[in-house]
Amino acid sequence: MTSLSTTISKIILTYLQTGRALASSKAPRESYTLITKCGRIGPSEFDYSPPWLSYSITRSLSRLQTTYIDVLYLHDVEFVSPSKVLLAIKHLRSIRDSPAHPIHYIGISGYPVPLLCSLAEMVLTETGEPLDAVMSYANFTVQNQTLQREGVSRLLKAGVKVVPNASVLGMGLLRGVGVPVGGKGDFHPAPEELRKAIGEAAKWVAGKGERLEVVSIRWGLEAWAREGRAVGAKGEVGVSVMGVSNLGELEETLRVWGSVVDGLEVRVEGKEIKREEREWSVKRREEVNMLVEGIWRILGQWRGYTWASPDEGYVNVRLVKGVVDEVAPLPEVVTKVEACDLGKRSRL
What we know:
Layout: H1 4-24, E1 35-38, E2 40-42, E3 45-46, H2 50-64, E4 69-74, H3 82-96, E5 103-110, H4 113-127, E6 133-137, H5 146-157, E7 165-166, H6 192-207, H7 212-227, E8 240-241, H8 247-262, H9 275-299, E9 305-306, E10 315-318, E11 336-339, E12 346-347
Parallel strand pairs: 1-4, 4-5, 5-6, 6-7, 7-8
Antiparallel strand pairs: 2-3, 9-12, 10-11
């Protein structure tokens, strides 16, 4: 089993490799966007305190070899109290407004849509300034559309202009081979009954000559491009976040996205679309939508199911172990254990 220290080492290495790649690139800094997160340190370790956030930002700037981060998220906000989220947002804004201007935009990320909305509303009420972005994951997929149904209108009222949709495969749930099992074991929170329903849907889709993963990615990207248009900022296209493991996956994802864009009604800057490309995209959309209707019938009551986050009994254990002091002295941290408010499972 992969140890936590090995996982952290890989993450640090990826950061450093990214920084070196960007530093050696001839692309102007303003030509690309850097987005990162702070606050979460490990599976059960969070620190939203001002000293740690300042340290984390300084470290990220050093690793990425840049003078500013375009968008910074407080990550997995459901694992800490709302009061700590509010304090952290205020501190990040003080850093944003400092002469160095090392952060340009600030948001939050996490899973439970109702909580994300409540936090966005709280920040607007308490500070008079809305969050710049709120990212949810696994909440606008073939299996679950909670982000659109319950999130968009509330977040718009809270002044949020950008709501990225992450993990259109539901953390790997929407795969014909089942949820991924790696060094962390079977981490996925989906119950066995939901997994079985997904398995049945995958077999049905395969009988139609398709793969559940392909259908889910295509539908997720295209549907959110439309449904998330109001929270896509200036682009007028819903923003999706996709994870890839290698260059081949990146190229394939970009190919699918380009094909999705071909069929959108809005004009995307810098992209000329041929009539045959548009016609193929529209036809493919119709095919995928028909398959998704069939998947929904199979899912039945499990369409829209959301799991608890954090899990029942979760405790935040704050420890500083194995952290390399790269750019600044580590802030003093007192070992402590904090219980977290429990979430509830629901079929929405």
